[in-house]
Design a protein that fits this description.
Blueprint (H helix, E strand, L loop, with lengths): L23 H21 L1 H16 L4 E5 L2 H17 L6 E5 L17 H7 L8 E5 L6 H13 L2 E6 L12 E4 L14 H20 L16 H15 L3 H10 L4 H10 L3 H10 L4 H4 L4
Parallel strand pairs: 1-2, 1-3, 3-4, 4-5
């Protein structure tokens, strides 16, 4: 395994070697200057990211799950990504989920040594099936818990994706698609919650959003599978139906009531002049693709 001391993320950054001598604005300016490199590093990894999305799409359509594995900051970002998909895209939490070294309690309080437990990572992936996707996330690309999960997933036959923030990560040998985002030395040496964490957040956002777009959960750039579970989201749902179906808010609210809160069903029913029940049937036949139902695909 690559020595931790040799990793780019562990090196001292010459651009911030005097950061402790700066005033508050100067400290922030140095951090921000380093942050500018992150988006460019993510863009360089887009070809690999696209392959990862297509791999997950194929497995998802076979009924598979996407299961994210990470430790520390990587695990917390994975859990955040998984938690936000159900209300945004009406995704079952059983289909897109995250597992973290040390268990859920490690989200709020670090569980020391958990990331070094390779057998623990393997145990966390023991229930995967061949149609699933294991997505391992490790800034260093060498976290034992994550490698254990990926190794176990491969033995089961699951597809495997890896995300790391070094040029040639160890986990590249354990995955079908490796997303290597070279973020370089951190502003504070070794603090991968900074640039590496930002890069991981960008990649996870892009990965899950692109997957949802390809699954038809977005119409134009509108989240038409949103779950209207609070006042803000109910207002958003009404606005979506009103905008796409070109009707006023009162009619949109009534259409949503008939559709039991489903934005897609309400839009299809109004646009095609059919009942909510028939709109639901047509959407089911079109695998949820609203453009297909509306004859726009």
């Amino acid at each position: 395994m690559t020595s931790l001391d040799e990793l780019a993320t562990e090196q001292a950054n010459p651009n911030t070697s005097d950061i402790d001598l700066q005033d508050t604005f100067g400290v922030l300016e140095r951090i921000n200057a380093e942050d500018q490199h992150v988006a460019r590093a993510v863009r360089a990894a887009l070809p690999s990211l696209a392959r990862a999305v297509d791999l997950a799409l194929e497995r998802w359509r076979r009924g598979g799950r996407v299961v994210l594995f990470g430790a520390g900051t990587s695990g917390r970002l994975a859990m955040l990504d998984a938690a936000e998909l159900p209300p945004t895209f009406d995704v079952s939490p059983d289909r897109y989920l995250a597992r973290m070294a040390g268990g859920p309690t490690a989200f709020l309080r670090a569980v020391e040594g958990a990331e070094d437990d390779r057998a623990g990572g393997a145990a966390a992936a023991a229930d995967l099936r061949a149609e699933d996707v294991a997505f391992g996330i490790a800034a260093s690309g060498r976290t034992p818990w994550v490698l254990g999960a990926l190794e176990a997933a491969g033995a089961i036959g699951a597809a495997r994706i890896g995300l790391a923030c070094v040029p040639k990560p160890e986990l590249g040998d354990y995955v079908d698609v490796c997303i290597a985002v070279d973020t370089g030395p951190e502003a504070i040496a070794g603090s991968t919650r900074m640039k590496a964490g930002t890069a991981q957040k960008l990649v996870l956002n892009a990965f899950s959003t692109a997957l949802m777009v390809r699954l038809g959960k977005v119409y134009g750039n509108l989240m038409v599978d949103v779950q209207a579970t609070n006042a803000k989201l109910r207002r958003r749902a009404t606005r979506l139906v009103s905008e796409v179906a070109n009707i006023d808010a009162d009619r949109a609210t009534a259409a949503l009531d008939d559709a039991h809160g489903s934005v897609k069903i309400a839009i299809a029913a109004v646009r095609l002049g059919i009942s909510a029940a028939e709109a639901a049937e047509r959407l089911a036949e079109a695998d949820g693709q609203l453009r297909v139902v509306l004859g726009e695909a």
